[in-house]
Amino acid sequence: MMERESREGTMEDVDAVTREVLTASRLLVAVSARSLSAVEDRVTLPQFRMLVVLSTRGATKLVALADLLRVAPSTAMRMVDRLVAAGLVDRQVNPDNRRETLLRLTTEGHRTVEEVTARRRTEIAVIVERLSPEKRRALIDALSAFNEAGAEPSARAGDTRPSPLGWE
User: Fold this and answer.
1) Kind of pairing, strands 60-61 and 97-105?
2) Sequence ranges of the domains in the chain
3) CA distance 63 to 60
4) What pLDDT, in 10s, does the model give residues 51-61?
5) Cβ-based burial of 15 (10 A; exposed 0-12, middle 13-18, buried ≥19)
């Protein structure tokens, strides 16, 4: 009887944590969407994700980019075409294999990623500042454990660059 109650208590805990994480994920998605508001006339959320990948990986082949984003190469090509037209990405011949084309961010593409990331960081900081110091420490511990359980590498202190994929 006690084992069953213990198991039910554990499942209730899992359900409660899952609900709170889902709520936090909605908040973070909203923050992400708002951070894109200044560039939404040129960049969608999936396109921004592509910009983040190119920002962290540098020049990349289309097939590799599609694989990293987990989209079909044709979908990636359409996204690239739009980003090239917006002046955020350019194509260049691979100096090691002239039959290949590499994709990379333009200066404007880098600036866009930096600005959106800075807005996101600022909005998250405003939310965190509303927490008491004790709740901040508890949140650090809880999120560190959550990230570790999900095998997500920790962002380094002072690192303002976006994560390698923006999300995965």
Assistant:
1) antiparallel
2) 2-149
3) 8
4) 999 999 999 99
5) exposed
* Contact of 162 with 55, CB cutoff 8 Å: yes
Nearest to 38 by CA among 114, 107, 128, 124: 114
Cβ within 8 Å of residue 76, ≥6 positions away: 50, 62, 65, 66, 69
Distance CA 92, CA 161 (A): 24
Report the predicted TM-score, pTM, of the whole model to 2 decimal places.
0.76
Reported as a single tens digit per residue, the pLDDT across 131-153 is 999 999 999 999 999 988 988 77
Tokens of 150: 């999900």
The CATH number assigned to the domain with range 2-149 reads 1.10.10.10
- Round to whole Å and give the CA distance between 122 and 110: 18
